[in-house]
Fold each of these.
Amino acid sequence: MFLTKIELDPHRRQTRKYLGSPQVMHAVIMKATSIGVIGDDTEEFHHNHDSERVLWRVDGGAFGTTLYILSPRKPDATQLEEEAAVAGTKARTLDYQPFLNRLADEQIWAFRLTANPAYSASMGPGARGKRFGHVTAEQQIGWLLSRSTKNGFTIIDQDEGKRKLNSPIGKLETVSVLVARRERPVFSRNRPDQPGRDRVTINRTVYEGILQITNTQTLRHILTNGIGPSKAYGCGLMTLARERRA
């Protein structure tokens, strides 16, 4: 696996086009990774396509706008560099495997995850369930907590739960994970099995917190294959960093 980092310039017209549509960004990333554009990104569709998984995420803030791409082969980022990157900068790609190899049970890491916390509701006998997004910060955090153990980690409190973290979404409180940012991109995509286009809305949620590894093999799988739905549209990528204490 390869992790690529590209500093984007939101003032450029083409950059705004990419950032404005997860569908368009998905297409240019899949072109760069030479895998081809995938349509609907359901969990079922990708169950047997893990070896070809491409994840991506856009981080934005006062520090700038950064695109991360995790792919099974080193991407050709020429188009993104020429059309969307900060002038004079190049994509930086690292072999991700040495980092994955260093992970071990009981290690503690800070994490950032962009996900689409959602649930499926029954539409009746014989009908496919419909996906709905969790909309409150409490629901979104609950969604992640409910999936942590089976995904090889547990979320822990900093400083044994005594440190206060200020979430821009909620009030000041002692937390083990916070919702740092929420977005609701809306875009259209082609229907996979019939003519026409569908309107798609994603509850894209950025989580930050501290985790402890409980099952290294499972967590490696999650880091390289993502968490939750809408992976084609900038969700699912979790990255780890050494915990920084005040």
Note: Confidence is low (pLDDT under 50) at residues 37-51, 160-174.
Amino acid sequence: MKKYIVSICLGMFLFSSCSNWLDVKPKTTVEEEEVFSRELGFKEALTGVYIKMASTDLYAKNLSYGFLDILGQRYQINAVANYENPLWYTFPSTYTESYTETIWAKMYNVIANLNNLLYYCDKNKNVFTTEHYYEIIKGEALGLRAFLHFDLLRMFGPIYKDNPMAKRIAYRTEFNQVPKEMQSSDVVVDSIITDLKRAEILLTNTDPLNFEFPKTEDGDRGTGKDGFLEYRHKRMNLYAVKAMLARVYLYAGNKVEAANYASQVIEGKYFDLIGDATDVLRSKEIVFSVYVDKFDQQVTDITNGSSYCIVKESFLNEMFDVANDGTNDLRIREGVGFDYGTNGIKMRKYKQENLWASTEGTVVLIRLSEMYYILAECAATPGEAAEFLNKVRSVRGIDPVVCTEANKLDEIEKEYRKEFYGEGQLFFFYKRQAYTTFLHCPVNQMTESNYMFSWPDNETLFGKTN
């Protein structure tokens, strides 16, 4: 039988095709010694990591609009494939096991590739000849390792604020097949922060911070710039690292540092809240995303199929709090946020065939608005929290909200419902806050076990889970 995490495949990097913006030409199979004997090889290896992350098993589907948003009760489909079934919140179950096993294996496989890259990054440091390539590539790799481990912790870990000592995942930093014991979740959080801090140091004053969003078909062609360093919103850039630190510190309950890093992202002035109805992705708000090759073909399944839609308008209206906010919100508006058809209501966010080169094939993993929501959660008073929420609400086209100590968390939760549709973040919010139930949840009393993904059978058999 095949081992999982701790027994990830060694030896080869398997690459597929990629877009011109990556400025590299990955090969199908390359021996690792050859890969890391030249600077181009490091670019290819890092590109391969992003490609693996952008598979449908991970962020191109299951960890964005797919499995995680099913758990967030984003869709209302037919009775045969009803998502309002308690088995979706039973780990393991016939509904969840195939997802959780695949996610565990694929995530740790990507981490293994990052660990191999990081090993050679220092071993073969002399092959880097382009200014700042060493710092940028190593910084991105460390940031990605932290990002992936954090999502593993959010899925397979405990409700952290209630049970930070639970041992649910291992933070892997070496490329080998040696089983590693599961670590206390607070130790894992410390490791995540350590990697992010190291990435922050490496990327400071070296990351070119090219966040241009050209609206031409040619994108960056003819600019004379290094294509590998363009479109930094599609890489683990310096501000994505800062945003991750804000996200992780909030998860760990350190509101001072969470607010500090969220403010840094906002005050960096590289991103803007926008209310452009023609920009379905709100592109200037994208802090970090993945590029999905041939995403338009996959989107056909979203827009034409019946798995990711809403049958009744009342379901969507409840999700977007239309009774209080009306229908002027860009995020729900017909032809802007959603398409309203006879076969159901379907999101427009991923209909990107007519967008420009810098935003085509994009799945957003961190956006600017989250930083405002983090500040709202960390605010000293309900009035201050409302100010942060209203900065986003006003750009989305809805009236300001008034927060009290009693309703502040409810108002933040409503904004998560509206803002991150199709991006997989809502379920994580419910888990972090230990909601005992939520809108359309089929379980009346959610406990930690209903939020905590199960280990694969092989990990239980061969790993160090005791």
Note: Residues 1-29, 216-223 have pLDDT under 50 and may be disordered.
Amino acid sequence: MTPSKGAARAEALLDAAEQVLATQGNANSAMRDFAAAAGVRVGHLQHYYPTRADLIRAVMSRALSRSLDRLAVVTDTDQSLSREESEHFIGVLLGEQDDQATVRLYVEVWAIAAADQEVAVVVRDFYAQYIAHVERAVACAQPDLDAADLGAAAQTIVSLLEGSAILRSGITGRKSKASDRKLVDTLQYLIHGS
């Protein structure tokens, strides 16, 4: 099914917003910069996304959807999660860090959220959904884990992944096979409990 003209325009606006955040950064993330990157007037952009927070919420929602789509093969099941399957799951999560533009997008959104309460709400909602998704994967590997421990494991996994993004993305030049192996082993432990 072909998307409507309006839906296609909204996607193009989100593409432009991602590019501005990933290349120009937070300092240039005013609505006029997003509109210029999309080749539209500010009023046209605001027809689809009235505020910067609305635009960033849509960018984050789309980024989350892309991430969750990639993980669905592993996490959208009620079956037990083997170590091999969780290794694939971890590989998909870490693979997102190989794209510097994606990492830069997240870094910039975190910076915006630190100063903008509306965007902070968007970021909190994003991570609540992301953590819930990781909880489902951990629950498949450890079905008897109580809710508190399940939540703690998922939050720790997400914390390790998000923190490792800076080192693994090339921003710091610290990515190594040895540290990746330790990271994967640690994540496997958190997923499987042993």
Note: The CA atoms of residues 86 and 188 lie 7 Å apart.
